[in-house]
Amino acid sequence: MTHTLHRRGSAESLSEDYVMLMIQAIGHNEEGHIPKVQEFLRIALRHNAINIGSVSMGGMIDKAEEVIANVDKVGHAVFGNPEDVTAVLKEVKEADLGISVVVSGIYEKVDGCLEKAGLKHHTGNFSLGVWGRTEKLPEDEILEVTTMCGHALIAQNLVKEMVKEIKAGTKTPENAAKLLAPQCACGVFNTSRAAKLLKAMADK
Amino acid sequence: MKIDPELCIACEACLPYCPMAAISMKDDMAVIDEDECVDCNVCLKSGVCPVDAFVFEPAPWPRSLRATFSDPRTEHKETKIAGRGTEEMKTNDVTGRFHRGWVGMGCEFGRPGIGTRFRDVDKVAQVLAKHGVEFEAKNPVTFLMEDPKTGKIREDVLNEKVLSGIIECLYPIDKFEEIMDALKEVAKEIDTVFSCEVINRADPDGSYPLRKLMDKLGISYRINGKQCVGLGKPAADV
Known about the structure:
The complex is a heterodimer.
Chain A: H1 11-14, E1 18-23, H2 33-46, E2 51-54, E3 58-59, H3 64-69, E4 74-79, H4 82-95, E5 100-106, H5 107-117, E6 123-132, H6 140-146, H7 156-168, H8 173-180, H9 191-203
Antiparallel strand pairs in A: 1-4, 1-5, 2-3, 2-4
Helix pairs in contact in A: 2-4, 4-5, 7-8, 7-9, 8-9
Chain B: E1 2-3, E2 23-25, E3 30-32, H1 42-46, E4 54-55, H2 64-70, H3 92-95, E5 102-109, E6 116-117, H4 118-130, E7 134-135, H5 140-143, E8 145-147, E9 152-153, E10 161-162, E11 165-172, H6 176-187, E12 193-201, H7 209-217, E13 224-228
Antiparallel strand pairs in B: 1-4, 2-3, 5-11, 5-12, 6-10, 7-11, 8-9
């Protein structure tokens, strides 16, 4: 499960893309974890989460209560700036839920969030990029959208189709991003960032 | 995955949804290239088909691996493990799986969006085994190995294609350079891609020894990554 690690993009674009997750440790603290993950998601919603989700429900910011009611082992939340991440970290720390929390984003930015929240790194996960037959990969601009679903469930051709529709005026970038979002089974797709990326492709 | 020819109305709406681009039009009907299809269920679960023409019936072994590795919403019936990987570093504050002085490594084959046959996973796993890595016992790819000491993956699954499959392993940090060199060489021999990642327990001051080592060796890593922030309980002694 490295589903939030390998997100691609420029520093400017990634500075608007953070994922937090809360996950039980099997065999250690799964008993009674569900209300704690639910509380985490409610905290996330109070601080402008762009998307929330769980593996069982996918991401549905429009049906947040449904996602929260059906949460299982993991809760995910997506944010667009370090200030919201910091606010969530502070509240989660204060709530002392006792379930592991992971933050994905630009190290430099996340480091600042942790410091402000009075937290330290415990364990880090570094992406060394893509190896092997990289000539098989689509263009970087497509990957910037598709890698926001770490399970690779968003097809590159669907992204290209959305760009065509934006160009043709049959979809807005926001509507196109909303159509892509449910393909991501965990709810870690950043619809705000996706809309910007799709618009940039369509404007070319 | 199959498309019911009696129901398909050739609207072509489903074509762009397939992550493997395995759906095409033939004789005025949408058809799936079953060899390329990884049974991820995206076409079915997207709800894009206006006449519900997609039909998924669980496949027997070894094809059954396609769905369990490619659809994160399904469980590995064979391995009894959910998902394509494990909790890895996410819960390290509680499990203590990654100790100081060690490197966790993941090679996720087929990602992003290319897919992989297990024969490519096999090639890399065997090379890593020769360098003495410890494969994660609870990882579904490890379950497919004839012997985790050799990394050899069983013959009957080598041609199966999945959206992604992860090798997860562990080794002492002093082997990092050697493993990176070996990985670079074997990466030239595979017919797909893999996303590579490394995991490291922070020192008490919050710094990562592996990060310093990567900087020293000139090994580049992305500006963004993932960090466990130590809020889990009971806290592991690592």
